[in-house]
Amino acid sequence: RAHFTMIGNNATEPLLMVRFTKKSPPDLITFTKERLVDSGIVITTEEGGGLGRKDPGVVLGITTNQELLEMEAESIHLIKPTKPDKTWGKVGIMELFTVDDRDEFVNIENEPDQTFFSSAEQSMLVNVVLESVTVLKNGELSNNLSRKLEELGVPLHVSNSDSDGMIKSRGISIFSHDRLLHVLLEHNYVDVVCPLHGGHRSERKAITSDSFNFFTPLPIEKIRAYYGDGIALYFAWMDSFIYWLLIPGFVGLGIFFLRKYENAAHGWNRTVDDCIYTPFFGLVMFIWAILFLRFWNRRENLLAYEWGCFEGGGYGYNSFSAARPEFEGVMKRNEITGLMIKYYSPKLRMLKYIGSAIVTAFLLACAFSVMILSLNLQGYVNPAHDETRWEGKTHPFYFPRLADLAEEGQIFDMQDTIRSLIPVILHVSSVIVMNTCYRSVAEKLTDWENHQTYASHENSLILKRFLFEAFDAYLILFYLAFFECDIAKLRSELVSMFNIDVFRRVALTYVVPKILQLLQGNKEKADVGAAKKNDITPADIPDDLRMSNEANWDGYEQFDDYLEMVIELGYVTLFASAYPLAAIIAIMANQVEVRIVALKLSSVTRRPMPLRQGNIGTWNTVMTAIIWMSALTNCLIFGFSSMQMMQWFPSLYTIAEDGDQEYVAGKGDEAVFIIFAAERMLLLIGILIVMIIPIVPNDVLIKVEHRNYVNAEEARMSRIKSGVK
Fold first, then answer.
1. What is the CA radius of gyration of the chain?
2. With contact defined as beta carbons under 8 Å apart, do 252 and 587 qualify?
3. Three-class SS of residue 128?
4. β-strands 167-169, 94-96 pairing
5. What secondary structure does DSSP assign to 274-290, as a single string?
């Protein structure tokens, strides 16, 4: 090769670690190392396993050279900024990196200082190199590694192909190019492949320090440079969410103090149930939510362009669209490329979708049953609370023996501040247990569906888990709001669930994982404790201990961080008319949450593999559904669940003997018309906002057109030169 510049802070600094499981034979590890080195991967470090672990696995620290890195950057269509020379002295453009044109890109001359590729890009590219290594070289029939894998019972691929391009091995037709890493992961010879925290103390310290500055924006670019686009998009979304919450936060706070002032000034005792201003808060929240999502999509597209992941530019590459090694299928010729590919019948997958839906429906029914029991324990289900409605009827969800426990003097006395919280805590705890169980079920169902790409697999998993966890979070609130039609109970439950959830998130996000990390293994615990005494984080333990310890940390799962915030968005928007103060509390909670996530990433979990993503994917769809549904829920709370509508249209209502509101005879249809007319008006306003505000900023469109113009001019000038010759 022309040059061999090592990647990393120095020649011995690994970028990725690969941990072999204890079932891996020593000769398999040896042959794997030989194959990796033969493919251009540099093994800088080798450890015998984690401290305090029995039968530890071998951990390899790997990197590669600059030339191979640049070749892989070109192969995955990495986008980098060009120098002004590219555009004849004007501002540079975002362009596909190519080795031939490498000198046209910004900072390429600083290659020895490793400033051209960010830390995240280096890790991602080394991983691409690692994933491209096949068991056999092109044209090889066997080698030491393949023979060892055959000995272990792993089906091997050979390079002889028949007339159909199918590969024959012991009479079985299989794909011709098995990736070594996929084989090792699939058969549990390798269990951890991830970038290393070690050697990046200054970067992690800068990110954590900047994140904990509450008066400055989050360090999105630093996060992206270290963790990659996927993690950076989460922090960018959180940054937008927190700042946008300031609007409903202060509006809700203003309504709260205005109601307090009028109650004191006029001797009133108005609550959320009959407040004349709260309905306008529901209106504000819907419009706010539409605007928030629209402007977030604009920022998302701007960041995607600046990061080289803008799909609308025609050159973006999404590493999430890569094929999963777990995907199974029969071999079939691709009609477009003519290559043999794995194929799985869409009809068979559809049957599996139906099976997944049946299992999910059964588990949701179980969750509904738990919710009904919880409501009885909290005293919310009792026909005596609404005798007019249930006179002569049987309440379908009333269980007297359970409901009696919430009566005065009983164990769950709903009038007692402390005892009334016990069933709420029990309900939240049961929800956590059910969600944990369903998480395992959802993962198995999604694996069973056999998705071809990471994107389709992740989207299916997100929808399943969100549906179940949202069902647990919102069902009790929907029941109280629209079946019991009791806004007082709705607000009480919403406040309890919302506030308890805030403390639960802090505990489960950082505190519990940190404690578990410090308690794993006696010797490892002692080493971590000694490091902390010297003001050293676990990731900065010396090289002979660091990789093995990091490999023992938990992997980072971004789903939970997104889920918590999207569920919170639902609390704030779907039930805005019941709890106007939710937004201001969410601001304070989120300010803490996002910083705890930054701390968790740097010192509790393994460093996640960087992903190139131009958007937050399915979460945009989920938020869209929640926001548009909030128009209906807030109008129903306004008209059916509270006395808010009666304050504005008193001629439609009368007060019954039991104190509840009733429609004046012949006025019910008019009230229903007003409620749904208001909902349609909100939807119309939302549609107009969507039509007026495009999700792609004009600046981005101009830059994309400028890039296209520059490339067209280069092509024209090249043709002219060719014609001259």
1. 30
2. no
3. helix
4. unpaired
5. T-SSHHHHHHHHHHHHH
Per-chain mean pLDDT for the chain: 81
Given a contact cutoff of 8 angstroms between Cβ atoms, the answer to whether 624 and 695 are in contact is no
d(CA 167, CA 134): 15
Distance CA 154, CA 209 (A): 48
Residue 215 pLDDT grade (very low, low, confident, very high; cuts 50, 70, 90): confident
Residue 579 near residue 244 (C-beta atoms within 8 A): no
- For the entire predicted model, the pTM comes to 0.83
Sign, Cα dihedral of 602, 603, 609, 611: negative
CA–CA gap between residue 85 and residue 66 (Å, rounded): 24
Range list of H helices, 187-308: 201-211, 220-227, 229-244, 246-266, 278-306
pLDDT single digits (tens) 344-390: 888 898 999 999 999 989 988 888 888 888 888 888 888 887 777 77
343, containing H or E segment: strand 340-343
Residue 168 is inside which H or E element, if any? strand 167-169
Distance from the Cα of residue 675 to its chain's centroid: 36
Q: How far is CA 514 from the centre of its chain?
A: 21
> What CA–CA distance (Å, rounded) separates 80 from 99?
12
CA distances from 361 to 198, 355, 433, 459, 478 (A): 45, 10, 18, 19, 18
Closest CA to 353 of 459, 434, 474: 459
What's the rounded mean pLDDT across residues 25-33? 93
Query: Is residue 516 within a helix (H) or strand (E), and if so which, with residue range?
Result: helix 512-519
β-partners of residue 513 are none
> How distant, in Å, are the alpha carbons of 544, 702, 714, 716 from that of 711?
50, 14, 5, 9
* Spatial CB neighbours of 441, under 8 Å, sequence gap ≥ 6: 359, 363
Bridge partners of 19?
59, 192
**Could you tell me the sign of the dihedral formed by the alpha carbons of 562, 567, 571, 574, in that order?**
positive
Residue with tokens 């080493």: 527
Query: What is the rounded distance in angstroms from the CA atom of residue 26 to the CA atom of residue 28?
Result: 5
- Of 117, 138, 11, 118, residue with least CA distance to 64: 11
Rounded Cα gap, residues 89 and 418, in angstroms = 71
What is the percent of the chain with per-residue pLDDT over 90, rounded to a whole number?
25
